[in-house]
Amino acid sequence: MTTGFVGEFNHSLDAKGRLILPSRFRGEFEGKCFISKGYDKTLSIYTVEEWTKFIEKLATLSVHNAAARQIRRFFASSAAECDMDKQGRIVIPPNLRSFLELPEDSTDVVVVGAIEKIDVWSAENWKKYTEDIVIEEAGEKLAELGL
Asked: What CA dihedral angle connects 62, 43, 129 and 23, to 10 degrees?
């Protein structure tokens, strides 16, 4: 992945819980991906390569630290390996669909590039999240971190 996953795309889940990945992202996956719960009530979709890197980092966290155990369990227990069909669709397992907190009458999601992975938001939560961002404050925090 040279430029990373970038962009914002409005999609819907079909009746079987399938999500069509944006065409510009599909080539990175080679027909397979990993999906897990993410922060902010999102789902995170990783290439096999990025998932492996992520899991290797998690594996270095001490099992003797309660917070580390919690993080390891949160991501590993929710993860699912998904095959992509020829139309670029993946099936999102029911437990992960419910984590998105989709309103009962909606299947609308927003697929967001997040550099090394893709995040999937309920359309409602994405709207709230983007309305609440104060980019200047975030920029100041990044400056403190040296970016």
From this structure: 130
Nearest to 26 by CA among 79, 89, 108, 119: 89
- DSSP conformational letter for 70: H
| Dihedral sign (CA 1, 120, 77, 39) | positive
Query: Distances from the Cα of 21 to the Cαs of 13, 45, 72, in angstroms?
Result: 10, 10, 27
Domains of the chain with CATH codes: 8-144 (3.40.1550.20)
Q: What pTM did the predictor assign?
A: 0.89
pLDDT, tens digit (0-9, with 9 covering 90-100), for 63-87: 999 999 999 999 999 999 999 999 9
- Yes or no: say if 19 and 86 are a contact pair by the CB < 8 Å rule: no
Residue 133 banded pLDDT, cuts 50, 70, 90: confident
Distances (CA, A) of 127 to 79, 85, 109, 122: 25, 29, 10, 9
